[in-house]
Amino acid sequence: MRYDRTIELCGGRSIKLRYAREAVTPETYFDHLHSHRFFEICIPLSGEMLHMANGVQYMLKKGDVFFCRPGDEHYAFCREASVYERYAVWLPADAFSEVTPDALGFMRSDKLASENFFRIRPERQEAFFSRLGRIGELMLSEPEADDLALFGASAGLVARIAEEARDCLGERGGTPAGRIPPLVSRVILYVRENFGQPIGVAEIAGHFSINRDYLSRLFRIHTGTTLHGYLVFIRIKAAKDLLSAGAGVTETAFACGFNSTSYFIKVFSAETGVTPSRFCNKNHEKALIQKEKS
Q1: What is the DSSP letter of 6?
Q2: Are 57 and 222 in contact (CB under 8 A)?
Q3: Mean of the pLDDT values across residues 40-50?
Q4: Model confidence over 251-288: pLDDT tens digits?
Q5: What is the mean pLDDT of residues 68-85?
Q6: DSSP 8-state symbol, 111
Q7: Domain with CATH 2.60.120.280 in the chain
Q8: In which region does residue 178 sit, left (phi positive, over 0), alpha (psi from -120 to 50) or beta (all else)?
Q9: At what angle do helices 227-244 and 261-272 cross, to 10 degrees?
Q10: CA nearest to 216, candidates 197, 201, 234
Q11: How far apart are CA 60 and CA 72, in angstroms?
Q12: Which of 211, 221, 209, 213 has the alpha carbon at shortest distance from 184?
């Protein structure tokens, strides 16, 4: 289930809002590292998701607010099968300048210079989610009829987020709750950038000059999955993309860091339930069916 609404502003600007609730798994949800020219605010309601921004990983839950400034590199991936429910807002810096001057200024404050996350105080969450629910109701209304009301509600939400951020960060010290240790974040980025090389857990641990058993335990504690499992997941996702684009099985195996075609076939079959060749055939059959329908 996904609902999107766009509020057109003057000067070609716009605000985009999204509510989504969907069943996700590590195999079906994979967000590539990206950045954009506008601000983004994500408010999770449920799900086992990891969010990364600027090299720092966060394990979010209901009551957290995740945000990105223009240029912040970020992505999200599914830690385990779950129902991922969230609200998201994409908006220009001056979206609410007429009613709330510098509403997004809190993201540029000194206290948030190295952060992309904060947690709303428990005693304030009920009022916050009540306000969020009102936005959800307006999103489901007639597209044009309530744009003004939706704009006002969105401005109020962003102002409330700014207030909560200032209050929470003013009292917070040390590593914030929900933030994953920098080492784990660096390992995740290293795997995503080097999965095409013939590396395993031992090589990754060696790269970071750390005991492999300690690294494996730390990674599992903070991500919910094993380092080996995550490496396999990244490789199989890349393999699916290559096979879908027409690459051969042997070419794909070595491009994704497997040291032999037979081992690649074994792992791919175990992870997907089909051999690489059968996967290619099924994609080809789907393409033919879609072509006939069009």
Answers
A1: E
A2: yes
A3: 89
A4: 999 999 999 999 999 999 998 889 999 998 876 666 55
A5: 86
A6: G
A7: 2-171
A8: left
A9: 100
A10: 201
A11: 18
A12: 221
Span 8-21, average pLDDT:
87
Give Cβ neighbours of residue 149 (< 8 Å, ≥ 6 apart).
Answer: 138
pTM above threshold 0.85:
no
Long-range contacts of 229-235, Cβ-Cβ distance < 8 Å, separation of 24 or more: 230/188, 230/191, 231/191, 231/195, 231/199, 231/200, 231/201, 231/204, 232/267, 232/271, 233/26, 233/27, 233/271, 234/191, 234/192, 234/195, 235/195, 235/267
Q: Which residue has 């499992």 as its token pair?
A: 229
CATH of 2-171, one of 2.60.120.280, 3.40.50.2000, 3.20.20.70, 2.115.10.20: 2.60.120.280
Residues contacting residue 171 through CB under 8 Å, at least 6 positions apart: none
Q: Which of 38, 36, 35, 5 is nearest to 19 (CA)?
A: 5
Whether 101 shows a pLDDT value over 80: the answer reads no
Tokens at 280, concatenated: 């290619």
